């Protein structure tokens, strides 16, 4: 008896199996012989090194930007925290604060070392950052207002007496133009400045505020003119004035007013107007004009 075969295929089935076998073989060949990995360009070693250096440079720049920058400062105002960040010891900071508590001021790097006892190496690091007020670094004569009556220009001719001088608060532009160095523009500036205030000038010192007037021209002007009818102002008590009152004074803004009150509190009141020169950011060159509006009780 013949055994019936279970693997008997028709011609179409055999053709299909044969085609499938060919596809499997082709797929295996493709898998083994074709590179399917990403097409990575082979960058030269020099280019890789160049880019690495660029990245390192950018990291260095970013690192330097993250380092806190220390700006110039007045060593008289170093606090506990500020001293700590500068690298000072608690003892050195305490010596400085004790010195300041006596209402004394440090005016040089050497004096800073004498008071705090910091090392030479620490002083070398800190001293380039010290910023003292202009009145310390560029001391001027005690008289802040220039005595124009004694300038060389005045010596060239006899000065008029006070009675002979004309009132600066009533002078016309034509009167002012008689002075050598004062033309239509500068005389107009003088009149406009005077008219900003009801009553005109308080003092001759206000001439410093007028654009175009040089010290030499002011000297010649004051030979013929004086403020004979000064504007009356209600002076503000420096030791009790609020910030809002202080900012009404010429050349004092809110920042300066804040520093004035801060210094007033530190000193437990001002004893003289000269102590204003120790106030942070105080406009020293406008000292005489500012004090026209102030009083001390």
Automatic annotation (TrEMBL):
Keyword Isomerase set for record: no
Name the InterPro entries on file.
Endo/Exo/Phosphatase_dom_1, RuvA_2-like
UniProt entry tagged with the keyword Transmembrane helix: yes
Q: Where are the transmembrane segments?
A: 16-34
Keywords for this protein: Membrane, Transmembrane, Transmembrane helix
The protein here is known as Helix-hairpin-helix domain-containing protein
What is the organism of origin for this protein?
A: Gelidibacter salicanalis
């Amino acid at each position: 008896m013949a055994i019936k075969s279970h693997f008997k295929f028709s011609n179409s089935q055999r053709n299909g199996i044969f085609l499938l076998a060919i596809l499997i073989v082709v797929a295996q060949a493709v898998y083994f012989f074709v590179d399917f990995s990403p097409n990575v360009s082979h960058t030269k070693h020099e280019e890789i090194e160049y880019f690495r250096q660029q990245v390192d440079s950018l990291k260095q720049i970013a690192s330097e930007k993250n380092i806190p920058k220390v700006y110039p400062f007045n060593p008289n105002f170093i606090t506990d925290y500020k001293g700590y960040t500068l690298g000072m010891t608690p003892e050195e900071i305490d010596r400085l604060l004790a010195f300041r508590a006596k209402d004394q001021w440090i005016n040089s790097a050497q004096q800073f070392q004498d008071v705090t006892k910091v090392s030479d190496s620490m002083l070398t690091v800190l001293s380039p950052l010290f910023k003292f007020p202009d009145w310390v670094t560029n001391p001027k004569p005690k008289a802040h207002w220039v005595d124009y009556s004694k300038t060389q220009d005045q010596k060239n001719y006899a000065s008029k007496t006070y009675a002979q001088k004309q009132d600066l608060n009533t002078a016309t532009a034509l009167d002012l133009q008689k002075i050598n160095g004062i033309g239509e523009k500068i005389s107009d500036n003088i009149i406009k400045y005077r008219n900003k205030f009801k009553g005109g000038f308080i003092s001759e010192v206000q001439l410093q505020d007028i654009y175009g007037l040089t010290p030499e021209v002011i000297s010649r002007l004051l030979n013929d003119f004086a403020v004979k009818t000064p504007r009356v102002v209600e002076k503000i008590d420096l030791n009790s004035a609020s910030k809002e009152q202080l900012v009404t004074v010429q050349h004092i803004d809110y920042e300066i007013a804040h520093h004035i009150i801060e210094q007033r509190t530190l000193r437990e009141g001002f004893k003289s107007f000269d102590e204003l020169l120790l106030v942070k950011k105080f406009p020293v060159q406008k000292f005489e004009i500012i004090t026209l509006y102030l009083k001390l009780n």
